[in-house]
Amino acid sequence: MKVTFSLIKADVGGWPGHASVHPDLIKIAEEELSKAKKDGLLIDFHVTHCGDDLELIMTHTKGENNEKIHELAWRTFKKATEKAKELKLYGAGQDLLSDAFSGNVKGMGPGVAEMEFTERKGEPVIAFMMDKTEPGAFNLPIFRAFADPFNTAGLVIDPSMHSGFIFEIWDIHEHKSVKMKIPEEMYDVLALIGAKSRFVIKRVYPKEGKLPTDEPVAVISTEKLYQIAGKYIGKDDPVAVVRAQSGLPALGEVLNPYAFPHLVSGWMRGSHNGPIMPVGVKNAICTRFDGPPRVVALGFQLSNGKLVGPVDLFDDLGFDLARRKALEIADYVRQHGPFEPHRLPLEDMEYTTLPKVMEKIKDRFKELKD
Ligand code: F6R
Ligand code: MG
Ligand code: MG
């Protein structure tokens, strides 16, 4: 059976500030998706949040980019926005860049990670959700899960994944994509994806073996709001869907990279580097300096498209040290205040006063004599 797993998210109002999502918004989303399940459009759903982002996890048989599914997500976000406006939640409707739906939520503000695949006998799927960062934040953990033999033992000792994977990488500045082979082109892949604000891993495909090579095994949202809106309006908090086991990295191999709270861009005013902290949903509330950035992972077994779960995978003491380390790093980088590399380089900042400052003092600049 072919099933489509769609994870669609939007920030339609923060509570308070940009910290979390009000329970009334979650309730509205649950009601809308529940109706769609009764009507047979969805097989199953789960609604949650990460920080101030409302997250719709849905399964169905309509395929990717389906108009009905996207319209359902759009309608749900619109309804939640009405409530957000009534409660005067912060930035109500901020990610909905248009009034009218035009067939697909892509390019309209929400973030989308969806993939269609043949459900296996046992199909573990993980929905990852990040807040206060950008799509390139997934580059490192996805690379490590699918390409780093020091993370993923299966790459070395499991014959069904020993040949590696194919990475589809997007250049989000030039709007181009390229498929590259792991491990053959590993160093070239790293040369690209290390520049995480420009090159992002979009999908991973199996190379050969047990799984169909034309069905993705991982997908990451890559929407760049500032490119859509023509100005910075947020850091495009990304989501990803990853399948695991039986010829793919084991669940624990997919999760292990998050034990290292790597530095990502975003955090306060979308303009700072900071550690990404793996947390359970109950701790996915961005408080200190509007962060530090968070990542949540909900695990499901699929049963003919039904979502058996979730298991809140980072709500586990296996990630206590990562959280502690993230807090230590947060303390350390915060002491840099307005200095790089805590504050992002000029071209990546969401907020800047520099043009105004320069304008004010431009006549006081003198040519250097030596
Ligand atoms: C980061 C984020 C927040 C806001 C900050 C200022 O992505 O959403 O850190 O940038 O709280 O928000 P405003 O300018 O709305 O007061
Ligand atoms: Mg927000
Ligand atoms: Mg957010």
Short description:
The protein has 370 residues and is of the alpha+beta class.
Name a few traits of the molecule.
4-stranded antiparallel sheet, single chain, 15 strands, 370 residues, alpha+beta, binds fructose -6-phosphate, binds magnesium ion
Secondary structure topology:
Blueprint: E1 2-10, H1 23-38, E2 44-50, E3 53-60, H2 67-86, E4 111-118, E5 123-131, H3 139-147, H4 154-157, E6 165-171, E7 176-182, H5 186-193, E8 199-206, E9 218-220, H6 225-229, E10 239-243, H7 251-255, E11 263-266, E12 272-275, E13 277-278, E14 294-303, E15 306-312, H8 320-334, H9 354-361
Parallel strand pairs: 13-14
Antiparallel strand pairs: 1-3, 1-4, 2-3, 5-10, 5-14, 6-7, 6-8, 8-9, 9-10, 11-12, 14-15
The structure holds fructose -6-phosphate (F6R) and magnesium ion (2 copies).
One magnesium ion (MG) binds at residues 11, 14, 18, 52, 91, 94.
